[in-house]
Amino acid sequence: MPARDWFWNAIARRYARMPVPDKASYDRKLEATRARLTPESRVLEFGCGTGTTATRHAPHAGHVDAVDFAPEMIAIARSRAAEAGVGNIAFHEATVEGFEASAESYDMVMMHSLLHLLDDPRAAVDKAASLLKPGGWFVSSTMALGEDGLPLMRLLLLPASALGLLPRFTPFTGDELRAMIRGAGFEIVEDWKPAPRRARFIVARKL
What is the C-alpha to C-alpha distance for residues 113 and 176, in angstroms, rounded to an integer? Predict the structure, then answer.
């Protein structure tokens, strides 16, 4: 079994119990995202995990499709949405590359804490662009392991990833991340990092 499969399924319940590490930053990201939503918005989240963000945004949108490849994560996410009384979310067990939807069918695509975990992050951003309507929003929060003086993290994570002990981590810098997003046909309208060694939050609009 690939490391990413057993790892995320194994930690799903512990992950669900963990508090948000920086609530103020998380709340700001929620507000920035909701500012781009309407009651008719069709939203897609790749890497939804245990469903916290999808469940928080669903009352402000028309419909949310939330996708994660880990069945344990999806099971918890469905339970959370049901407990919250949120009925306009559909959860899907799938990878980014395996999820199928019509081109230009979404108003927003979200990828939080995901791009740096993918074998081909550029292909994922390109897929987001293909699924978005013209003028649609791409919202992401990404750890750029190639910047901010993170050599120790890279020294520890990348060998463990290569040995299959941890999921894959793809190192890139903030400049490389921005270039990746712009190269997929987006205009970046918000680029915010709350502190060094924190995820970079980007809101981009499809041209």
Answer: 16
Structurally, at CATH architecture level, domain 3-206 sits in 3-Layer(aba) Sandwich (3.40)
Tokens of 94: 């799938």
The torsion angles phi and psi of 110, rounded to 5 degrees, stand at -115, 140
Exposed / middle / buried, residue 66 (Cβ in 10 Å: 0-12, 13-18, 19+): buried
Under the banding of pLDDT at 50, 70 and 90, the label for residue 149 is: low
- Using a pLDDT cut of 90, give the percent of the chain over it: 71
Q: Which amino acid is at 41?
A: S
DSSP structure class, residue 101 = -
Helix (H) / strand (E) element for 68: namely strand 63-68
Q: How far is CA 63 from the centre of its chain?
A: 17
Q: 6, 73 in Cβ contact below 8 A? A: no
The domain locations on the chain are 3-206
Distance from C-alpha of 173 to C-alpha of 193, rounded to nearest angstrom: 13
Tokens of 82: 């049901």
Mean pLDDT on 79-95: 97
pLDDT at 165: 47
Q: Global pTM?
A: 0.90
